[in-house]
Amino acid sequence: GAGVSQSPSNKVTEKGKDVELRCDPISGHTALYWYRQSLGQGLEFLIYFQGNSAPDKSGLPSDRFSAERTGGSVSTLTIQRTQQEDSAVYLCASSPSSFQETQYFGPGTRLLVL
Amino acid sequence: GQNIDQPTEMTATEGAIVQINCTYQTSGFNGLFWYQQHAGEAPTFLSYNVLDGLEEKGRFSSFLSRSKGYSYLLLKELQMKDSASYLCAVRSRDKGGTPLVFGKGTRLSVIA
């Protein structure tokens, strides 16, 4: 079946602009995660959605970052007033539920802030 | 706090066996994952350990010792296509037992 998809694949933007990154999880997966992978760094947790529960936003690095998940499916990660340090690969993952389930990753969005 | 350590780079010969180690320190533990990531691609799931011992899956095996905070990934009969980064990740109870905490990854180069 279809895996996790993300769009765009690549995004180049100017410092100070807002960007939106989209994630389509695997159909039926109730848990959705956003991670960030910077050059030379491990994957860094950003935010997590489980069903209709309030999201766990504890990994968001600043209030310029926000995310929403509409209808329990598609999620959008928004970065406002982008900075050069926001340049990274943003990865989305989903799992059938939250507890002891393998997370399946999308191909990521490569963001470059000039 | 949480800390996951693994070697930055390793090189091994085609056909050989390689062991990639991972040590972790977390305030809670709820499972350890290994992922493979080829350059420019998404991480793909390799293995999951929650109890002590060895899990074998074809050419890949993963071992866990919870008392030592230690895991390793063993790759046998190495192939050129195994050249990739291998990510160790721990599920910690700090975050409701769900999001993964990743190490920086071990870049494995398989040479002829």
What does this structure look like?
The complex is a heterodimer of chains A (114) and B (112). Chain A is mostly beta strands. Helix content of chain A is 0%, strand content 46%. Chain A is built from no helices and ten strands. In chain A, strands 2, 4, 5, 8, 9 and 10 form a six-stranded mixed beta sheet that branches. Chain A is globular. Chain B is 0% helix and 55% strand. In chain B, the strands form two sheets. In chain B, strands 2, 4, 5, 9, 10 and 11 form a six-stranded mixed beta sheet that branches. Chain B has a five-stranded antiparallel beta sheet with strand order 1-3-8-7-6, with no helix packed on it. Chain B has no helices and eleven strands. Chain B has 112 residues and is mostly beta strands. Chain B has strands at 3-5, 9-13, 18-25, 32-37, 44-49, 53-57, 60-65, 70-75, 84-91, 100-102, 106-111. In chain B, strand 4 and strand 5 form a beta hairpin. Chain B starts with a strand and ends with a strand. Chains A and B meet through strand 4, strand 5 and strand 9 of A and strand 5, strand 9 and strand 10 of B.
What are the defining features of this structure?
heterodimer; A: 114 residues; mainly beta; 6-stranded mixed β-sheet; 4-stranded antiparallel β-sheet; 10 strands; 46% strand; B: 112 residues; 5-stranded antiparallel β-sheet; 55% strand
Following the backbone from N to C, one meets helices and strands of chain A in this order, namely EEEEEEEEEE
Chain pair sharing the greatest interface: A-B, 26 and 26 residues
Structural class of chain A: mainly beta
Number of strands of chain A: 10
Estimated radius of gyration of chain B: 14 Å
Could you tell me the mean pLDDT of chain A?
92
The number of helices of chain B is: 0
Structural class of chain B: mainly beta
Low-confidence stretches of chain B: none
Largest beta sheet of chain B, briefly?
6 strands, mixed
Indicate the overall shape of chain B: globular
Strand content of chain B: over 45%
Rg on CA atoms of chain A, Å: 13 Å
Oligomeric state, counting identical vs distinct chains: heterodimer
User: What is the residue-mean pLDDT of chain B, rounded to a whole number?
Assistant: 92
Inertia-based shape of chain A: globular
Let me know the largest β-sheet of chain A: 6 strands, mixed
The poorly predicted ranges of chain A are none
The end-to-end span of chain B amounts to: 41 Å
Helical content class of chain B: under 10%
> DSSP helix count of chain A?
0
